[in-house]
């Protein structure tokens, strides 16, 4: 645990770019996901610790006469590329806020699986904000972009910042966790098929109404203290996700994934966000490789990848 990411503001063009602008954006996991009761607006009050991991999508923005989106990689041919796509919604929102014409040719290279609990769609929206800001020279600060991001989805502001951060409200209020740089080693077990986030929250409400859900997580204090100790065994004991019981109820096979990861030597395993991806904390990089191979050999997931965290949020590369 030596080399690690530290937050920095990169140079962003202020006058707009004539050439292509390429943005890299990470996936997120939640080290702690505390879910409160449903609010009158249907969202749940969260207290979460977001963590950006080195599993990236890439969005390239070029000048164009209209707004278009093309894509390759995971989900190509499946994902709608029209105005319902979060990338297009984000580009339009930035144009509206800054009074520029929403003209760009956007191309997405996708690796983050869909409906996986890794906030892939939200990540792409964050990438679109950063890319179009650079392409159009709209000169937004990260805080400006995060405010627009909150209109697109609860996880989008975090993907604008990256790193490790506390999320409150419906997740859209983000404040960075300042800790001495540490690199954590994760294994990401990608499932076949996704889970719809609203269905997982609804299942948690149902389980809670039946008093069939485990007790809700407490505050994020233990998790934050564990991060400061920089010891993976301590962090392992502090990971938690209130949505896990709901994801397991909808997808009971996830219990086998969690068991297989622990049997392979993971210090801990949890469902990521609303699932169905499971993430495991490994002691170091070589343990992470071994756990990923063991998960793949056990045949309990579609694919197991290693990823370090924390990493930067959406950035021009
Ligand atoms: O904010 P976002 O559009 O990503 O949320 C997707 C869905 O997840 C919401 O429509 C809601 O059903 C659920 N959700 C929730 N409470 C949150 C965040 C999301 O119930 N804090």
UniProtKB/TrEMBL annotation:
Record keywords: ATP-binding included? yes
Q: What class of enzyme is it?
A: transferase
- The source's superkingdom equals Bacteria
Pathway membership: Isoprenoid biosynthesis; isopentenyl diphosphate biosynthesis via DXP pathway; isopentenyl diphosphate from 1-deoxy-D-xylulose 5-phosphate: step 3/6
**Where, in this chain's numbering, is ATP bound?**
113-123
What Enzyme Commission number does this protein have? 2.7.1.148
SUPFAM superfamilies of this UniProt entry?
Answer: GHMP Kinase, C-terminal domain (SSF55060), Ribosomal protein S5 domain 2-like (SSF54211)
Query: Which residues does the entry assign to the active site, renumbered to this chain?
Result: 28, 155
Q: Which Pfam families match?
A: GHMP_kinases_C, GHMP_kinases_N
Domain GHMP kinase N-terminal intervals: 85-163
Keywords, sorted A to Z: ATP-binding, Isoprene biosynthesis, Kinase, Nucleotide-binding, Transferase
GO MF terms here are:
kinase activity
**InterPro entries per the UniProt record, alphabetical:** GHMP_kinase_C_dom (IPR013750), GHMP_kinase_C_sf (IPR036554), GHMP_kinase_N_dom (IPR006204), IspE (IPR004424), Ribosomal_Su5_D2-typ_SF (IPR020568), Ribsml_uS5_D2-typ_fold_subgr (IPR014721)
**UniProt-listed HAMAP family:** IspE (MF_00061)
Membership in a protein family = Belongs to the GHMP kinase family. IspE subfamily.
PANTHER family, per this entry? 4-DIPHOSPHOCYTIDYL-2-C-METHYL-D-ERYTHRITOL KINASE, CHLOROPLASTIC (PTHR43527)
Q: What is this protein called?
A: 4-diphosphocytidyl-2-C-methyl-D-erythritol kinase
UniProt source species: Asanoa iriomotensis
- Recorded name of the encoding gene: ispE
